[in-house]
C-alpha cells in the first residue's frame, strides 16, 4: 500500500508540538505565492493565458506545461532575478503566523534553493517592514545544500513544497512538513499541511 500524508491533527495527537526555535521554512510555494506570479508574468509579459494554477502538477514546470523551452526559461529567470511588473505576494495567513513564531523564537529561518537572495529578501522586507521580530534568509543555490544548513542550525522540522527535498531532509533526520500544492500530490509518508493555520496548530506555544 502506498504511504499517505498524515494530517496536522494526527501529528498533534501523536507527537509533541514543534519547538518554534527548531522549525524553518522554504520560501517559494510555502510563504511566497510564486506560481501565481509565474502565471501573471506569463499572461502579462508573454501573452500566455488559459493556464490554471491547478495545471502545474509537477515541480519542474516544463514537464507539465506545453510551452516552448525558451519561454519557460525566460519566465523562471524573471522569477529568480526579478524585474517583473507584478508583486510576489504571501500565501494567506503566512505573515501573521511568521510574526507569532518570531515573537516566540526571536527569529525565523527561511532557506531557499535560489542562487541569489535579493528578490526574495526584498519580498520578505516588504511583507515584514518591521523585521517581524527578526528573520534570516539563506540562499543555498541548490536543493541539495538545504540539508546541511538545516542540520547546522539545529532545525528539527522543515516546511517544504518540493517532495524530493522532503525525502532528502528526512534521510538526514529532519522531519519534513509538506505544504500541499498541486505539484506535490504524489504519495508520501510525511506530515502534510494545507494552510498556515494548520502550521500554527503544530507549534508549541
Explained architecture:
With 205 residues, this protein is α/β, with parallel strands linked by helices. It folds into two domains: 8-33 and 90-202, Rossmann fold (3-Layer(aba) Sandwich), CATH 3.40.50.1000; 34-81. Helices cover 38% and strands 12% of the residues. The chain contains eight helices and six strands. The chain has helices at residues 8-14, 34-46, 69-81, 94-105, 118-127, 146-152, 163-171, 196-202, and strands spanning 23-25, 108-112, 135-139, 157-160, 175-179, 191-193. The chain has a six-stranded parallel β-sheet, sandwiched between helices. Helix 7 links the parallel strand 4 (157-160) and strand 5. Helix 2 (34-46) crosses helix 3 (69-81). The longest helix is centred in the first third of the chain and has 13 residues, at 34-46. The N and C termini lie far apart (36 Å). The mean pLDDT is 91.
In percent terms, what proportion of residues is strand?
5-15%
Helix percent band: 25-40%
Order of helices and strands: HEHHHEHEHEHEEH
How widely separated are the two ends? 36 Å
Outline:
The protein is α/β, with parallel strands linked by helices and 205 residues long. It has two domains: 8-33 and 90-202, 3-Layer(aba) Sandwich (Rossmann fold), CATH 3.40.50.1000; 34-81.
Task: Name its key features.
alpha/beta, 205 residues, 12% strand, Rossmann fold, globular
List the helices and strands and how they pair.
Layout: H1 8-14, E1 23-25, H2 34-46, H3 69-81, H4 94-105, E2 108-112, H5 118-127, E3 135-139, H6 146-152, E4 157-160, H7 163-171, E5 175-179, E6 191-193, H8 196-202
Parallel strand pairs: 1-2, 1-4, 2-3, 4-5, 5-6
Amino acid at each position: 500500500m502506498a504511504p499517505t500524508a498524515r494530517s496536522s491533527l494526527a501529528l498533534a495527537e501523536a507527537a509533541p508540538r514543534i519547538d518554534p526555535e527548531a522549525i524553518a521554512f522554504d520560501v517559494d510555494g510555502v510563504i511566497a505565492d510564486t506560481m501565481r506570479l509565474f502565471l501573471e508574468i506569463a499572461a502579462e509579459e508573454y501573452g500566455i493565458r488559459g493556464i490554471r494554477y491547478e495545471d502545474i502538477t509537477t515541480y519542474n514546470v516544463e514537464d507539465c506545461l506545453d510551452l516552448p523551452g525558451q519561454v519557460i526559461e525566460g519566465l523562471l529567470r524573471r522569477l529568480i532575478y526579478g524585474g517583473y511588473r507584478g508583486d510576489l505576494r504571501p500565501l494567506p495567513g503566512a505573515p501573521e503566523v511568521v510574526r507569532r513564531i518570531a515573537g516566540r523564537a526571536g527569529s525565523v529561518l527561511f532557506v531557499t534553493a535560489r542562487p541569489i537572495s535579493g528578490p526574495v529578501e526584498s519580498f520578505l522586507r516588504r511583507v515584514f517592514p518591521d523585521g517581524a521580530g527578526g528573520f534570516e534568509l539563506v540562499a543555498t543555490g541548490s536543493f541539495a545544500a538545504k540539508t546541511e544548513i538545516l542540520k547546522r542550525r539545529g532545525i528539527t522540522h522543515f516546511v517544504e513544497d518540493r517532495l524530493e527535498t522532503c525525502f532528502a531532509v528526512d534521510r538526514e533526520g529532519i522531519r519534513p512538513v509538506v505544504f500541499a500544492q498541486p505539484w506535490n500530490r504524489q504519495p508520501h509518508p510525511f506530515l502534510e499541511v494545507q494552510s498556515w493555520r494548520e502550521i500554527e496548530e503544530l507549534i508549541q506555544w
